Amino acid sequence: MALRDWPIQQKLTAMLVSISGLVLLLTAAAFAGYQYWSLRQRTLDALSVRGRIIAANSTASLAFANEADARELLSALRVDPHIVAAVLYEKGGRQFAAYPANVAGDAVPAVPGPDGYRFERGLLIGFQPVVVAGSQRLGTLYLASDLRAIYDTFRLSGVIGLAVLAVALLAAYLLSRVLQRTISQPILALAETAKAVSTRQDYSVRAPQVGADELGVLTNAFNQMLGRIQDQDRAVRENAAQLEQRVADRTHELQERNESLRRNAAELLAANTELDAFAYSVSHDLRAPLRSIDGFSQILLEDYSEKLDEAGRESLQRVRAASQRMGTLIDDLLKLARVTRAEIRTEDVDLSGMAQDIAGELQRATPERQVEFEIAPGLKARGDTRLLRVALDNLLRNSWKYTAKQPVPRVEFRSADANGGRTFMVRDNGAGFDMKYADKLFGVFQRLHSAADFEGTGIGLATVRRIINRHGGRIWAEGAVDQGATFYFTL
């Protein structure tokens, strides 16, 4: 059973025992840590004292190269069972004498290490300098002692500590079993009353009040709440039938409205689908007749030009220009239909690189025009690469077209933070427009300038708006006549 599902008596008992156990564990851990550190320090001090004594007694053996005397001196260490090895080195680092006599391996270093005592590889080792006359060094004494004395003492202390901890926890458990009743009994009585109210829906029962502490105040407040609920329940029962009827009526009305909205949405979707399909079909089917008109007009001009007067040739030229313009309109309508029908594939898009490519294409297509492009680096977004290129191409070509009459044409593409989000903008210093006609900019076949001044079909900005809308963003424009225009869009 999870802890949150335990009875209150078990929770209180577990809480008291857990707190007592935690305090005892922390105390025992602190005591054990101190004892372990103290034992290590005492062992290190003892070995250090022993090393200084042996080093002081070894000066004569090293001074007179008396190996027998040195071995006898080191053999006195047999009285300490914890000494693993002892080696006396000459000044040059050669082993002079050792205890035990056959000691070898990892316990004995080949050459003496730095002076001092330290714990290494589960041993306490020390290098004690052997000096005479206060400063002349004759050699080095190496001592290695195991740590069994520390571990044995620490193990015994741990057993005693565990025994004390077990006894203390048992006492805390027995004491908590007694003390928790003063808290749990009023809560249990309150819970029994609440259960009776919930099960039988009987708001006339009351919980017994025990004492005047916080639990007593809680019990009194609970009884008062039951009294108010009893009065409210009586009023609710009287109005239940009326409320149920009103809810039923409102639900029926909402169902009818939802059904109507679903039908309208389905009809709108079907109408949009049919409209897109119609536009695509009509635009596609008009291509062949237009190509025939343009082709035969060209044949007439090439093969029968000498049989036509100037007015006839001019009329055929107008026929060809009109058919080509209509072909352009059809192409733009097809692009608009494809934008509506295309599936969105979202990915990371480098808008700055895309704008640089489009600007390069414009410059190569019309090298006689020198337009200054200012494209901010590092502009990135998430969207459909193909559709966003169509949108950005239309906006930049639009600025390219309307700056044709400026002596120093300039087009810039950058971003700014607006309304808590990122906004991209395409700005030019071209012909601009009157802001009172701004609502017509993004409509199909809507133009604010005559075709004689600036060529175009009036579909490009409508295509841009559809692409931006499909990316969940919006587009708007600001401008003034002969002062340029700025198109803003978000994604």
In short, what is this structure?
Helices cover 57% and strands 16% of the residues.
Structural commentary:
The chain is 57% helix and 16% strand. The chain is an alpha+beta fold and 491 residues long. The strands form three sheets. It has a five-stranded antiparallel β-sheet. Strands 7-9-10-12-11 form a five-stranded mixed β-sheet. α7 (287-303) runs antiparallel to α8 (310-341). The mean pLDDT is 82.
Search tags:
491 residues; alpha+beta; 5-stranded antiparallel sheet; 5-stranded mixed sheet; 11 helices; 57% helix
Averaged pLDDT = 82
Structural class assignment: alpha+beta
Low-pLDDT sequence parts: none
Outline, from the CA principal axes? flat
Q: What spatial order of strands do you see in the largest sheet?
A: 2-1-5-4-3
Strand content: 15-25%
The main β sheet shows up as: 5 strands, antiparallel
The H-and-E topology, N to C, reads as HHHEEEEEHHHHHEHEEHEEHEE
Rg result: 49 Å
The helix count comes to 11
Residue share in helices? 55-70%
Q: What's the β-strand tally?
A: 12
Distance between the termini: 52 Å
